[in-house]
Structure formats: C-alpha cells, structure tokens
Structure prediction request, 187 residues.
Amino acid sequence: MVIGILALQGGIEEHRAVLERLGCQVRLVRFPTDLEGLDGIVIPGGESTVMDKLARAFGLAEPLRDALKSGLPAFGTCAGLIYLAEVENPAPAQQTLAVLPVRVRRNAFGTQKDSFEQLIDGQPATFIRAPEVVAAGDAEVIARLADGRIVGVRHGRNVAYSFHPEENGRTDLHEQWLRNLRGEKHV
Ligand code: GLN
Prediction:
C-alpha cells in the first residue's frame, strides 16, 4: 500500500519508520500532486497552527481537504487529530480541515512540562501538549484515559489519537488502521 505522510512539520520520520516496518511504501506529501493514488495518509504530531499555515502557504490545504472528503483515509496523532477535527479553542486565525465530526480542546493537559505517559489498553501512550476530544459526535470512541477523557476516535476509515504511538516504538495502532484499509476485520 502507498501511504502518505503530511510532511510539512512534526514527527514525520517516526511515522515513516513505523509504516516502513509494516511494509508500506511511504510518500512524503508536500504538494497537491503528492496526494494522487494514495491508499491513506498520516497526519503527524507537531504543531497544528504551523501545519495549518504551511498547508495553506503550499496550496495543499484545500486539495487535502477535498481528498479526505472524497474518502482518502487518515491516521492522525496529536496535532494531526487537531488538524482533522474542529477546535474549541483555536489560536488566532487557526483553521483546521474539519473532516472528522469531533471537537477537540488544544493543550487540554497543560504545557510541554506537563507531558505524561499512561498505559492505555496495557500499552504506553505519550501525551505532549495533547488535545482532548470534548465531543465525539458520531465517531466511535476507541481510547480513553483512566479518568474517562476521550483520547482516540474512529470515524469510517479514519482514526486519530491524542497521543503518540509512533514515539513508543508501537506499531499496533498503525497496523490496525492498515488492516481496516485492506478491508480486514479490525482486532
Ligand atoms: N499542542 C499542539 C497543537 O496544538 C499539539 C502537540 C503535539 O502534536 N504533540 O498542535
């Protein structure tokens, strides 16, 4: 499968390593033509305001939104989740793609120094200036913190998490998504 990574800013290499380990052909996406023929796209963590600015500056925001609306499946982590969702507390002039029917609060767990790790379903999950999903709409909730806060959602063939599976050497969440794209049952 050919999987793109939105390669404007953020944790691009970490996702590339995971996808290559899982046997994908990876394409870094910077220009509209890079979207052609993809089976899915990863939107990495980083800083959603910067991603937004760069995507608009590169003329990529609209073609990316159109591709996602036409069914290109996405896998988002942290800033990637924010960029795919609606934001309750956007930075001034911040825009998002708003293709996932969920609402998030940016930096819901504090600043960089408040970063933490928690086991979710027995696996380590790292939260770095992470967003919380405050309204999941008709998306399915697939990850919660111990206190019940929503940190992972699935909607159709899109999944997005507040944390960074790619930072922990985890491949299982990418793998589940890829399996779903291939039409296999998710585990
Ligand atoms: N707080 C960042 C944002 O608003 C996300 C942080 C991250 O991706 N680790 O985009």
In short: Residues 45 and 79 are 4 Å apart (CA to CA). The chain has a mean pLDDT of 96. The pocket of glutamine is lined by residues 45-48, 78-79, 82, 106-107, 128-129 (CB under 6 Å).
